[in-house]
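To close the section, here is one more complete example, presented without commentary so you can practise reading it yourself. The ligand is NAP.
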Amino acid sequence: MTASNSSLAFNSEEILIGGKWRPAENGATHDVYNPSTGDMICKIGKSSAKDVDDAVRAARAALDGEWGQMTAVERGRLLMRISEAIKNHENELTTLEAMDVGKPITQARNDAVAMARYFEFYAGAADKVMGHTIPYMDGYMVYTLREPHGVTGHIIPWNYPMQIAGRCIGGALAMGNTCVLKPAEDAGLTALLFARIAEKAGLPSGVLNVVSGVGAEAGASLAGHPDVDHISFTGSVGVGKEIQKAAAENIVPVTLELGGKSPQIVFDDADLDAALPFLVNAGIQNAGQTCSAGSRILVQRGVYEDVISRMSEAISKLRVGQATDNLELGPLVSAKQKAIVDGYIDSGKESGLSIAAQGVMSDDLPEKGCYIKPTLFRDVPPDHKLAQEEIFGPVQVVIPFDTEVEAVKIANGTEYGLVTGIWTENGARQMRMAKAVKAGQIFINNYGAGGGVELPFGGIGKSGFGREKGFEALYGFSVLKTVATKHD
Ligand code: NAP
Ligand code: MG
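Output:
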């Protein structure tokens, strides 16, 4: 397709390699669907191993060009221009994303705004990453330098395409790396538009290359490419393992941002009025397709029925509609994802679990749309698969507990450890709980589903390792070099 609603009209069948837009090898493409209607909307380039190899070579060559000569402050200024350019194209990015992945317009717009904000943040950070001087033996001067890895590979999922591209490409560029980006096959369009925007803002050729395509081909060849120096991956645990194995062959560092089954823990003394919107929204934002969804609600017995009744009332009012209807929930990203989530809801029913509440579908939704009602299960045993596995849909489970010790045991009782929300007015308990729970990010009396751009984010356990977002990510996107000079 040519995205005619964009002032940067682009051909979605073209990939970006070394500053040139061209079809994938042999003109290969795959189909792109709008999950609100189920209609095919266009084709997108399907990059081959050869295309990925071309992209890596272009990224390598760009390190020796104008980009490699730029000072940190110049890189920062360029990132700021990209941030401004993203803001100028916010409407096109929003519309394209809503059509491609089914996000309600407001949520798609939030992602475009967040992508601009990532570039703004990393623009300001680019010239503030410093090494140290280290006291050593007499007659020595020792200091550390932070240098770019070189060529960085970025393999990203479909749930927050713009936000995740913003955080990993923004951070990698701030440190002076060059990038090869493989967007998800279900969410490649905004990556291509973003690359046009960055190019127009002045990013030199070859610094950002985009190889749309499928994971088994473009993704696997990027992860296993011998001339890639660092890989950042966001996606599932299963694919994360494959990425780590491929990187191990080349002894290449990886950042793995994998899934989660994040708890929100509500104690008897919590301010329930403050908690309620977070208890609900953290589970249904982006129709629950959020790695940091706060979808396991652990509630102390004294307020258990109260919380269930408040959540049920709120959830039964949630509406599901087309992305353009801009309701609380849009469709899931694909028919495949809908089938997975339907399977979880069925398995809960088959186990005899009770549904406390479900939301409402709009009338006359297209038959082929990928819609699911938000669903709240109550009294779920902590070891049930609904309470253990990442559902990646608008399904929340409520689990009762009696004591703080029991709450910690249940909270830490999955293989994941991404985010935890703690709701209590007791200051000492806030501190005990923050130490006791297994999670890379903890919110007390709020819940950020990944939180702001400034906040380091990443997992413990099967949620992965390494940190993206915030200043911390810049350490991951750079290499530390120690210099010891003997001067007598
Ligand atoms: P996924 O299947 O793991 O895919 C992620 C990316 O990897 C996609 O670009 C995918 O390409 C690619 N890929 C697939 N197979 C590959 C292979 N063999 N080698 C290299 N790359 C490969 O995940 P998803 O279904 O898109 O996203 C959902 C999952 O991501 C959930 O589990 C969620 O928790 C996790 N997630 C985590 C975070 C976080 O920050 N922690 C954020 C968002 C999502 P295709 O699109 O072609 O399959
Ligand atoms: Mg799509």
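Once you have examined the tokens, check your reading against these statements. The CA atoms of residues 344 and 386 lie 7 Å apart. The longest helix spans residues 105-125.
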